[in-house]
Please model this.
Amino acid sequence: MKKKDVNELFVTCINDHKEDFYRLAFSYVKNQEDALDIVQESIKKALISIETIQKSGSIKSWFYTIVVRTSIDFLRKQKKITLVDDQTIEYLSHGKKDSYNDIDLYNALDELSIQYKTVIILRFFEDLKLEEIAEIIDENINTVKTRLYRGLKLLRTIISEEELI
Model:
């Protein structure tokens, strides 16, 4: 495939699915600016390695893969550095703890390991088929099914434990 054709298909894919890519990045970082940075960094990485595209039909899943990996890399870097501003410290030190427990799906998802979280997000939040997920995370479809099953089971356990507290 010609480089010009691939570039045009890539730009069209980005324009057609920009909200999906942003939503995927946001589901990892929960922050608008960071999600936009991830999408931007993903586009940069994609443009650098665009000649690796073999088929025009795989551009979307290829870019999903880049967004997922860039998001995971971002989270790994963020684990090492946690900055808190003075206002947050003051608020937390004088604040009163809530007396109720709020069951939040996103908080429960954050407790899962990244391999389970990725499969669940791609399947239920991005509404991708299992075959597409397997291609994005470069795993066998049976591995994807197992991770989805185990991830949902762990999610149910986390939520039911929160209900008991």
